[in-house]
Amino acid sequence: MPGTFIVRRGPVGLLVAVLMAHAAVATVASAGGFAASETIFPATTRAWISISDFRGLQERFQKSPYGQLVSDPAMKTFVEHLREQVSKNGKQRLAKLGLTLEDLEKVPGGELAAAAVEVEGGRLATIMLVDTTGHEADASAVVERITGRLLEQKAAKITVAGAPPQLTVYELPPDPNDVRGDVPGKQRRVAFAVAPQALIVGDDAVQVGQALSVLAKGREDSLATVESYKAIVEQCAGSVPATAAPIRWFVDPLKFAAAYQATNPPREKKKGPDYVAILGRQGFDAIKGAGGLLVLNEGPHSLRHHTLIHAPPLPGRDPESVERFDLAARMLRFPNAAGVAPAAWVPRDVGGWAALQWDVQTAFGSAESLVDDIVGDKGVFDDVIASLKEDPDGPQVDVEKDLVACLGKRASVITDHVEPVTTDCERIVIALETIDEPRVAATIAKVMEADSDMRKIELAGHVAWELIDHSMEIPKLEVETPGGAVDHADHDSGDEAHRRRQRLREKDGRLLPHSTVTVAKGHLLIASHRDILERVLTAEGGPNSLASATDFAAIQTELGRFVAAATAARGFGREEEAIRPTYELLRQGDMPKSKSLFGQLLNDMLGDGKPGTVRAQKIDGSTLPEFEVVRRYFGTTGLAMETKSQGWYVVGLVLPRSSDQEVARRPAEPAASR
To answer: Average pLDDT, stretch 101-110?
Structure first.
């Protein structure tokens, strides 16, 4: 192995951070002091990001609507506060490498790249590679600052056998905040090397040394030789000109996740399933990699990305076959179809729409092993399905025959919000195509009538069911009396299938506390709120449908330049409508209280994990200007996904706001919902 040497004291340190973002994967020769970074990092690289022309990207960002937004005088106070906070957080993460965000902004003269490399023991090492061409003095100053910061942390310089003179290694004392259970904080190391026109910094001396030794010509066993990487290059390389200053990226999802777990064990032992291991066992390791290109201010687009999710069929399998993958991964079947467009009942003025072609029947048939694996008990899936059919207190429906077999291949989502902007203003409708609407309607009726938490209503001439929101109810004492309505004995008998259904109900109720369901317009419609469903049911179609909107047509024209007419997914959105609820809640300081799916996801990710608690808002948005001041910077978005023999090709783009861009109608929130 090139550049191998020995560190004399203890194991090498932990991964501290990996810079991840949208990016691209065309092999680009370095214009500066070293070969392209994908030829320098090893084949065991699990995640990689590269800005091939750092200065060029800065210029493009400044000219884009997003750069103009940041430069708007009305945003000055907020941007300064945000930069201060990002810098603080960035320092916390980069401090273990002795770096700051300010360092990274000043040094690059060409490529800036970072990689997470899997090393001995299945852990990850972080390496940063900077082309310092024309900024050699800045690089020397950065090295001095790195050294000073490490010494402030009481780091000790250590001797490395066989290391080149350019390599310096410091060992830091264990981090007292890194204690996990009874295990003390691990030893940490920072290594850096300065070469002509290059700076390398990492937490693994061996990897930094190897990168240093192959700077000029690269290595034979590099990331560039990985089959998934090469497939992504083949698909995406010609999508943007070399002058576009693209961001490039690659990740091996499951291997990265597994190595990240090994590198960052939880502070406390957690109960529950290991989803990374489960996905591997269930065949999802068929996804070998993902990567793509992201460019700013290229042609008519504010932003555009090209991505390939590389998932070739298993050896000897037909790419078009249901058996392309094994076990639960067979549910990853998204057939291309012509005419993936909004139905006539999708209102013209909604905030966003997306549709996916999905083989629902195959997905259902493939779910058994996945559900059983998650629960940890073989046969659970069959038990639940059987209970829905046979339980005398249940709906007594055959889910596969009465529902799944009657669904089509298309699932759609409509998103919007109402006025005023509150924590519960966002709206969503999920629409599942039906091929036997009467049978689906009858099945849904049986399921809903057997659910005491659903009430039957009439909505725009259709029978619908609405979830009863118990969140504001006063608890009351219930006494069982002969002949009265009592809970089924399963509540106390320990029937596991019943308890599972109860847990699912509690989760669904939390995510969609006002959900309303009906079968109409050839679809099973599931809405977050009654008002958005009524709006869909009363849609007039024709010129009042989204498909007739001028901004929707413009997006489809642009997407047509990059994908075939037959696609597996399409999406459209008006940026201002997608951003405004979050923007206003940030201004109000209420983002942690958001009841939207996105808001609840953020709360789960950033909160303390305790049920019922609300996290503190991380960003102070009180200095944001009125939304009307910044509305002009937001355009329209589009996305298309095409199923290929080697995986799924995704193109997304943003068109800047135009004089004829349509404005979504903002209906008022019904008084009963406030």
So the answer is: 82
What pLDDT is attached to residue 7? 35
| H/E stretch holding 319 | none
Cα(first)–Cα(last) distance of the chain, in Å? 66
Beta-bridge partners for 41? none
Nearest to 115 by CA among 223, 30, 29, 26: 223
Tell me, what amino acid is at 144? E
d(CA 542, CA 333): 32
Phi first, then psi, for residue 135 (nearest 5°) are -130, 30
Q: Where are the alpha helices (DSSP H) in 560-648?
A: 575-588, 597-606, 627-630
pTM for this predicted structure: 0.86
Residues 250 and 289: beta-carbon distance below 8 Å: yes
Q: Which residues contact 453 (CB under 8 A, 6 or more apart)?
A: 467, 468, 470, 505, 509
Mean per-residue pLDDT for 236-241? Answer: 90
DSSP 261: H
Q: Average pLDDT, stretch 86-96?
A: 59
Q: What pLDDT does 312 receive?
A: 97
* 178-209 pLDDT per residue, tens: 655 445 556 788 999 999 899 999 999 999 99
Distance from C-alpha of 654 to C-alpha of 300, rounded to nearest angstrom:
9
Q: What is the pLDDT of residue 489?
A: 36
User: Please, is 236 exposed, middle or buried when counting C-beta atoms within 10 Å of its C-beta (0-12, 13-18, 19+)?
Assistant: buried
- Round to whole Å and give the CA distance between 484 and 34: 80
Confidence of residue 592 (pLDDT cuts 50, 70, 90): confident
Domain map (residue ranges) of the chain: 6-261, 312-471+491-673
Percent share of the chain, pLDDT over 90: 62
CA atoms of 196 and 30, how far apart (whole Å)? 14
Name the DSSP letter for residue 631.
G
Q: How many CB atoms lie within 10 A of CB 291?
A: 29
Residues 6+ apart with CB under 8 A from 444: 403, 465, 517, 518, 519, 524
Angle, vertex CA 409, rays to CA 527 and CA 411, nearest 5: 25
pLDDT bucket at 264, cuts 50 / 70 / 90 = confident
Q: Give burial (CB, 10 Å; 0-12/13-18/19+) of 450.
A: middle
In the structure, how many helices (H) and strands (E) does the chain have?
A: 20, 22
